[in-house]
Specification:
The protein has 278 residues and is an alpha/beta fold. It contains 9 helices and 16 strands. The protein folds into 3 domains: 93 residues, 3-Layer(aba) Sandwich (D-Maltodextrin-Binding Protein, domain 2), CATH 3.40.190; 78 residues, 3-Layer(aba) Sandwich (D-Maltodextrin-Binding Protein, domain 2), CATH 3.40.190; 85 residues, 2-Layer Sandwich (Alpha-Beta Plaits). The protein is 29% helix and 33% strand. Strand 3 and strand 4 form a beta hairpin.
Length: 278
């Protein structure tokens, strides 16, 4: 069973349905109210796979996703990724003018992706952040006031809403990267990506540069790096890395072993085919 960020009507559900169609997946689907709840269900083996957003081209990273990845049991890995186009819509329970809207419900990521539109047209409203845009649509459906939500246009039919304005995202090329987490390690495809997380020794000059130079020395292309603070410890960070190649590639395998030996903390997150737009 694949768990995903619900309820129904989210971009995650739309992306997952596209993934299932493209890859002929037959698993049952189960929505969860938050990314944290998804990882809890995976740890409890209530579900066997998780499908989550981890990064948006406009809004940046989904922090809860990276926190969950770092705490994954060693038997789970990122096994697939896809890139899904994101077209944000402003929806209401009944037709109204933008000036009449008092409150907008949305996932925080959506407000980042629509910041210019919101600043220009809805600077007067109160923003209420919720766990998912599906939940935002539910809240608008249940409200008798003139309120709105941001999210996937397909949610309008599911929750009997009116699309007041489509494509309100700032960037026409807005897209989100989603990953599938499972106990399956994907075989070499010939066009792969590997993800891992590490931390360096505190107050050791050049420690991050030393780690990255190991990749450079082997001509391994670093495609992404991000840092997250370690809880309750200012100045200490976890570094999340994506690089070209598969863990079964001997050159990369040996390089990652060197990195593991150099680090204070290291965790392999998975090797998987580079995601395509679907």
């Amino acid at each position: 069973m694949i768990g995903y960020l619900g309820p129904v009507g989210t971009f995650t559900q739309a992306a997952l349905l596209s993934f299932i169609k493209s890859y002929s997946v037959s698993d049952e689907l189960q929505p969860f109210p938050s990314i944290y709840a998804l990882f809890e269900a995976l740890a409890a083996k209530t579900i066997s796979k998780v499908f989550i957003p981890i990064e948006n081209s406009r809004g940046g990273e989904v922090f809860a996703a990276f926190s969950g990845l770092n705490h994954l049991d060693a038997s789970y890995f990122i096994s697939n990724e896809i890139v899904f186009p994101i077209k944000q819509s402003l929806m209401v329970s009944r037709s109204c003018d933008l000036s009449d809207i008092k409150t907008v419900y949305a996932h925080e990521q959506s407000t980042r992706q629509c910041s210019l539109f919101l600043h220009e047209h809805l600077s007067h409203v109160e923003f209420v952040f919720v766990a998912s845009n599906g939940l935002a649509a539910e809240m608008v459906q249940q409200s008798s006031d003139c309120v709105a939500c941001l999210g996937y246009e397909g949610a309008a039919d599911l929750f009997d809403l009116v699309v007041l304005q489509s494509n309100v995202n700032d960037d026409d090329s807005n897209q989100t990267r989603f990953v599938l987490i499972s106990s399956d390690q994907h075989p070499v495809s010939g066009s792969d990506k590997t993800s891992f997380v590490f931390s360096t020794h505190k107050d050791k000059p050049g420690s991050l540069c030393s780690i990255l130079s190991l990749l450079s020395a082997e001509s391994i292309n670093l495609t992404r790096i991000s840092s997250k603070p370690i809880s309750n410890d200012l100045g200490e960070y976890l570094f999340f890395i994506d690089c070209d190649g598969h863990i079964l590639d001997v050159k990369l395998q040996l390089c990652l072993k060197k990195i593991e030996d150099e680090c204070l903390y290291y965790k392999f997150l998975g090797s998987y085919p580079k995601g395509k737009m679907i």
